[in-house]
Known about the structure:
By secondary structure, the chain is α/β, with parallel strands linked by helices. The protein folds into two domains: about 35-280 and about 330-410, Metal-dependent hydrolases (TIM Barrel), CATH 3.20.20; about 280-325, no CATH class. The protein is built from 16 helices and eleven strands. The chain has helices at about 25-30, 35-45, 55-65, 80-85, 105-120, 130-140, 160-170, 200-210, 220-230, 255-265, 275, 280-305, 310-325, 330-345, 370-380, 385-410; strands at about 15-20, 20-25, 50-55, 85-95, 125-130, 145-150, 170-175, 215, 235-240, 265-270, 350. The radius of gyration is 20 Å and the shape is globular. About 50% of the residues are buried. The model is unreliable at about 5-30 (pLDDT under 50).
Amino acid sequence: MRLKHLGRHALTGALLVVCGGQATLPLAYARMPSDPGGVAAQALSRAIIIDTHADTPQAMLEEGYDLGDLHSPYMISIPKMRAGHLGAEFFSIWVDPAWHKEDLIHRALDLIDATHQQVARHSDVLGMAATADDIERLHREGKIAVLMGVEGGHQIEGDLRVLDIFYRLGVRYMTLTHTKNDELGDSSGDQPGWKGLSPLGRQAVERMNQLGMMVDISHVSDQTFYDALAVSKAPLIASHSSCRALCNARRNMTDDMIRALAKNGGVMDINFYSGFISQDYQDGFAKIEKQVEGRLAEARADAAKQGKRLSYVEEAQIMRQLTKDLPIPSYTAIADHIDHAVKVGGIDHVGLGSDFDGVDSIPRGMEDASKIPGLVQELARRGYSEEDLEKILGGNVLRVMRQVERVALQTPATH
Length: 415
């Protein structure tokens, strides 16, 4: 497994919003809760908490990781999901853009199969979900819904028919690009090539609309984002993105993008990665980035000489050692980004996209899925109502899924 967010960092951030010449805090802070503990407890008991992005399938496939492991070193496990009140998890089907080009589909299918195997092995606790109704049904049955999202359009190898195959196997969103431009459009991590969405990318968005597969714009360039908005007949999602106004990473969304996504009816799922929510962490990492990349390249080369690939655990150990002196943010920084996104786009357009098991640094107090209740309590403390929390924790994603499903019924697949 690769730690996917290494090296994608830049500058700036502001926590205050200026209105009429006065510096004011986001609206959520202005609501003083009478009983935040009670509000949080009620929300946790009633909400279906949906996390739209976790990279655990890499460990399932490469290391034989079992989600039932009581002593799991990973951020996602059944015990941790239970402790965190998770109702549904979108597992990321991610293949490194540097993977052999002719083997991308095969690798993606292996990851999909590994996910299905976990659901079959733990069918008393987990269930595959294909629709919003499935998520709600599984929740009533006391099970955790499992869904999948393909992270990076490069994995269809330029063949739109692969979208149909992925959909039949349970994939319910696809991220148009990853860190490099692909056949569908430009990435936020690359130089402009297509100047936005490519002609094939436009066809891919249309096909995803026909299938009922959500179009995910995390990782895309700003222009690709706007092009996808113009083409799609269904709301879009940003499965794991944070606010550029608070942390100036190209992977994050500008306020204009947040407003446009909200107008489209979509949802922005806040990423928990330290480098996307904390400017201090990002600035600190920039100073040691070359050293980190060099050390990881060395370790990967050593593993390759032995006919192996460096495992997630081995990479994480190296990263922890090299980044131990960086200023890791508190989990309350996640709440800051939720506040900002709510202020800019509205309460109906914000969700959670943790990036668990795909990041090399996670905030203090959010070390794994079991810590989600702490975030809920923090949001309640800031004045979010039970209804607000139910929307942020999963209701907004369920709404978008239903809208995407309706669009598919209105524009049936032609082949």
